[in-house]
Design goal:
Blueprint (H helix, E strand, L loop, with lengths): L8 H33 L3 H4 L1 E4 L5 E4 L22 E3 L21
Length: 108
C-alpha cells in the first residue's frame, strides 16, 4: 500500500530555495578553490604583489591583503632587485618554512 502525500506550494518553494542554496554553495566553493590554487601555484611574485619606490627612495614589495596561504617565491630570475620592505600583512599565512625567503634580496 502506498501513501501519496500532496505537496503544497510552500513545499515547492522550499525545494527550489534549497537547490539554489546548493548551487551557490558549490559555485563559491569552486571560486575559493580556484583562487587558492592560482595564488599558490604562481611562480612569479610580480603576478601576485606590487612593487614600487617611495618618495624617500625606499623600495618595497606589497603582498598584503592577497589571500596568501604561503610566502611567495622570491626567485632571482623573476625578481632581481633588492628592496627595503616586504609587506605580508592581512594574509592567511600560518607557517613559514626555513627556505621560504631564499632568493630574497634586501638592502643593508
Amino acid at each position: 500500500m502506498r501513501l501519496l502525500t500532496m505537496m503544497t506550494s510552500d513545499d515547492y518553494h522550499y525545494i527550489i530555495q534549497r537547490q539554489y542554496f546548493n548551487l551557490f554553495s558549490i559555485f563559491f566553493s569552486f571560486l575559493f578553490l580556484f583562487q587558492y590554487i592560482s595564488l599558490s601555484l604562481s611562480s612569479n611574485i610580480l603576478d601576485i604583489c606590487q612593487s614600487g619606490i617611495r618618495e624617500d627612495q625606499t623600495n618595497y614589495v606589497h603582498c598584503g591583503r592577497k589571500n596568501l596561504y604561503s610566502i611567495p617565491n622570491f626567485s632571482n630570475r623573476t625578481f632581481n632587485m633588492a628592496f627595503d620592505e616586504l609587506i605580508l600583512s592581512d594574509n592567511f599565512i600560518t607557517h613559514i618554512n626555513a627556505n621560504d625567503f631564499n632568493g630574497l634580496r634586501v638592502k643593508r
